[in-house]
Design brief:
By secondary structure, the chain is of the alpha+beta class. It is built from 9 helices and 8 strands.
Length: 258
């Protein structure tokens, strides 16, 4: 490794170290003053790290904070998260009952991030690595989180989000997405087929706090070639009950399954 490469890597690690010491984050001028780098260099490092998911940027406050994708550097880190620990029995139960992959997802701005998962032991299976991200408009786990936004938040999201297609089945129409969000809120669960991966299917239910605010989602995902419509719908009561139980474990109450 060249001396110049070492220097760039050292600076990037120094930037991340500063954010680890200051959870409230930094603006470009604040970090420039802290590290003694030029404003141009600081901005370049921040934009690169944010583009890779290691930092999160709030345009309203013009402030960078640590991104949830940093979870992907350490699978053990999620075990220290109250939600992940509380939901672990639910994930294991979902995987056991469905024989497919069960995952826990949270929202970080415009993306859904996998916080924890228990993969199917079948040879061909869906895979959801910790730290994986998907846009909020694609996939059951993401849409369950999107449906947890209130109407104003949803409108704000649709104004700024790029509804890029991941497959030919990804929803790219704001009107269609909004209609589906309304349906998800009514049904209490989300489903998808081929929206993130062409052969992927899944169902997800929201985990909510006592005020009804969605904080996460639980999903079952599987290869589509072995899950027809009826089998997919059989997963719905499993994820809804698991999500309600996770809510009870974390907050002392949960969503109604009525």
């Amino acid at each position: 490794m060249s001396t110049e490469t070492n220097k760039v890597l050292d600076r990037a690690l120094a930037v991340l170290r500063q954010f680890a010491l200051r959870p409230s984050g930094y603006t470009v001028p604040e970090l420039t003053a802290e590290l003694g780098m030029s404003k141009t260099t600081t901005r370049r490092f921040l934009q690169t790290l944010a583009g890779r998911g290691f930092l999160d940027y709030d345009p309203d406050r013009q402030r960078y904070t640590l991104g949830m994708l940093i979870l992907g550097l350490s699978t053990g880190l999620s075990q220290h998260n109250t939600l992940a620990v509380a939901a672990q029995p639910m994930l294991e139960g979902l995987q056991r009952e469905s024989t497919e992959t069960a995952s826990l997802w949270i929202r970080v701005r415009l993306e859904a991030i996998c916080l924890s998962s228990v993969e199917s032991d079948r040879f061909i299976r869906a895979v959801s690595p910790i730290g994986r991200s998907v846009p909020l408009h694609a996939g059951c786990h993401a849409k369950a989180l999107l449906a947890g936004l209130d109407d104003a938040e949803l409108d704000d999201y649709l104004k700024v989000a790029e509804l890029a297609p991941l497959t030919s089945y990804t929803i790219t129409s704001p009107v269609d997405l909004k209609n589906q969000v309304v349906q998800i809120r009514t049904d209490g669960y989300a489903e998808s087929r081929g929206e993130v991966n062409a052969d992927g299917v899944g169902v997800a239910a929201p985990i909510a706090n006592p005020a009804g605010r969605v904080v996460a989602s639980l999903s079952i995902t599987a290869p589509g070639h072995r899950v027809d419509k009826d089998r997919l719908r059989s997963f719905v009561p499993l994820v809804r009950e698991a999500a309600a139980e996770a809510s009870r474990r974390v907050f002392g109450s949960g969503l109604s399954n009525a």
